[in-house]
Design goal:
Blueprint (H helix, E strand, L loop, with lengths): L1 H24 L18 H8 L5 E5 L7 H20 L3 E5 L8 H13 L5 E7 L2 E7 L2 E6 L2 E6 L11 H10 L1 H13 L5 E6 L10 H7 L4 E6 L8 E7 L4 E7 L3 E5 L7 H12 L3 E5 L3 E2 L2 H6 L2 E6 L5 H6 L2 E3 L2 E5 L2 E11 L2 E15 L14 E2 L6 E3 L6 E8 L4 E5 L2 E4 L18 E8 L13 H4 L8 E6 L20 E2 L4 E2 L2 H12 L3 H7 L10 H42 L1
Parallel strand pairs: 1-2, 7-8, 7-11, 11-12, 12-25
Antiparallel strand pairs: 1-5, 3-4, 5-6, 9-10, 13-14, 14-23, 15-20, 16-22, 17-18, 18-19, 21-24, 24-25, 26-27
Helix pairs in contact: 3-5, 7-12, 12-13
């Protein structure tokens, strides 16, 4: 009886200890992330975002109920992710909703229609049963509410562009939960205050062709457009110091970042002076500039098109800032295919996709955060960039280059689609990794030091900048989105001819985040999520071995453990008998 009492006491003591430890550790959050890329560790920017929430963010996730296994995994990971967020902020609250539960087909259609209008896209899922194939819809998305504002979030992220299988897309979507949901919370709470403006007035791309670029930036910042028109108040906050004489002083800059998207008309000297002083006061500029004039639309209308240098009156300004955009064109063996008419069939024109060497496909090789883990990018009529000058205090980083098989075409030149009919001579493509995008950061000096034609004293002239940064891209079309048959904008980076998505949009967003000093957001977007897939060749070669090992090893361990226990017990009781 005493031994039985001791055993019961020991048992209940262990149970009470386990319960006590669970209660104690429920007040603490601790996690060891053993993945090489730290995929389960929240970034500093996300933790800061959560800690600064001053009101409830309510998340309605419409991914619940009877789901296919892969979508069920997405639902589970979303719940775990939101639980982790709640550890850092009690203002995160959520619920999971099955929109189809207890609904008639008519009610369900009304719900799906309402969710679609709010920005969530129901996805068709086919269930194969003995009776046939049944199609139903699920909603892999959520609605976030904050102070009577609501914003949709798609949990299914297919922005990678290279993933085709649903399981791969869902795995990628799980890894992007932090960025996608965190981005939505930032938009709701307006915690990012930087001001970004698209420069207009010099033949820049029209709004419809930078629509998706602006749409992506507005997720983070206040977006505007500005026409310089030789007026100082366009870029600067001005205070009138003497109303009779018109004297004024500059109080600050109106925008943190200017985006210059493919200008084709020259800048006046005064506008150039305004841009220079904008930089001297700490402003940042993202330049998407074509050094030469070459348009695909012209080639579609004429058999031959001349390519000439484009005079934007910016060469000396760029040179002072440490770069030179060369008036050439680059061809690359790794190129985007374009549709070319190959004949007719039954009276209908037939087209064939042929690589057009003037449209290089760029694979980022740099480890800089702007381009790290970035998808390949598409370009149109790109030129080379040289870094110039030895001025101290300026750091120049090449972000993008062509491939190892590049050819330079000097201008003036004539281009024609007829070259598609000829086999290219690989020996002519003898240049390697030519720069096409460069980041320059540091303290810049003004181009207009000692310039006599502008009243520098009245302007409050500064000949030396605060630490700032700029990015130069020698292809204005890299920020341009295509239009569909109805002239509606397509996503930036999507090519409707090859039906592929390229990394142009993420490059733009990374560049804007970096220039606006939001590098933590950039780090979240560019996390290296490695898809650790099985080696299919090794599986075929070693299939039998691994099958035998997986089945036989557990049985062998059980057998060894059983025999060990048998002989230990036999030896124990043999000693007692003696």
């Amino acid at each position: 009886m005493g031994k039985k009492r001791d055993n019961l006491l020991q048992f209940f003591s262990i149970v009470l200890l386990i319960i006590a430890l669970n209660i104690i550790f429920s007040f603490f959050f601790f996690r060891l992330d053993l993945t090489g890329e730290k995929r389960y560790t929240l970034s500093k920017s996300t933790k800061s975002l959560l800690k600064n929430l001053d009101d409830v963010v309510y998340v309605k996730v419409y991914l619940d109920g009877s789901l296919p296994p892969d979508f069920a995994e997405l639902s589970l990971k979303t719940r775990e992710f939101l639980d982790e967020w709640r550890v850092y902020s009690p203002n995160i609250q959520y619920e999971f909703i099955d929109p189809s539960k207890g609904k008639t087909p008519q009610e369900l259609n009304a719900i799906y229609s309402e969710l679609y209008q709010k920005g969530l896209n129901p996805q068709p899922v086919q269930d194969v049963t003995a009776e046939g194939v049944n199609t139903r819809y699920i909603v892999p998305g959520a609605l976030l509410s904050y102070r009577q504002q609501e914003i949709p979030v798609s949990l299914l992220d297919s922005d990678h562009g290279l993933l085709t299988h649903r399981s791969d897309i869902i795995n990628y979507s799980i890894e992007k939960l932090e960025y996608n949901i965190g981005n939505a919370v930032r938009r709701l709470t307006h915690q990012q205050k930087a001001r970004v403006a698209f420069l207009k007035g010099h033949g820049e791309l029209p709004n419809m062709k930078v629509f998706d670029a602006a749409l992506g930036i507005v997720d983070f910042y206040a977006v505007d457009s500005v026409v310089l028109d030789n007026k100082i108040t366009r870029l600067f906050d001005v205070k009138i110091t003497d109303s009779t004489t018109g004297d004024f002083s500059i109080e600050g800059i109106k925008y943190d970042l200017l985006v210059v998207a493919k200008p084709v008309l020259p800048f006046s000297d005064y506008e150039k002076f305004m841009l220079d002083q904008f930089v001297m006061r700490g402003g940042r500029i993202l330049w998407y500039v074509d050094p030469v004039l070459a348009e695909m639309d012209s080639l579609m209308r004429y058999p031959e098109v001349p390519v000439l240098a484009l005079d934007l009156n910016l060469e000396d300004l760029f040179f002072r800032y440490g770069v030179r955009m060369n008036t050439n064109l680059l061809q690359d063996f790794n190129a985007l295919p374009i549709p070319v008419r190959s004949g007719e069939m039954a009276g209908q024109p037939q087209y064939k996709l042929i690589p057009w060497y003037y449209f290089p496909v760029i694979t980022p090789n740099s480890d800089h955060p702007i381009v790290r883990n970035l998808n390949v990018l598409k370009t149109e009529f790109v030129s080379s960039i040289d870094t110039v000058g030895t001025r101290r205090g300026l750091k120049k980083t090449v972000l993008l280059t062509t491939s190892s098989t590049t050819k330079e075409v000097r201008t003036p030149a004539i281009i024609s689609l007829e070259i598609l009919k000829k086999r290219a001579n690989v020996l002519e493509f003898n240049q390697h990794y030519v720069p096409i995008a460069v980041l320059v950061e540091g303290e810049f000096s003004s181009l207009f030091s000692g310039y006599e034609n502008i009243d520098q004293k009245a302007f409050g002239f500064s000949d030396h900048s605060k630490p700032t940064k700029m990015i130069f891209v020698s292809d204005g079309d890299m920020i341009k989105n295509q239009l569909n048959e109805k002239n509606y904008p397509l996503p930036l980076g999507y090519d409707r001819y090859t039906d592929k998505a390229y990394g142009n949009r993420n490059f733009l967003l990374n560049a804007v985040n970096y220039l606006c000093d939001d590098e933590d957001i950039l780090q979240v977007r560019s996390k290296d999520f490695k898809m650790r897939l099985l080696d299919s060749n090794r599986i075929l070669k070693e299939k039998t071995f691994w099958q035998v090992l997986n089945v036989g090893l557990p049985l062998l361990l059980v057998l060894v453990l059983g025999l060990t226990l048998f002989f230990l017990r036999k030896a124990k009781y043999a000693r007692r008998k003696q």
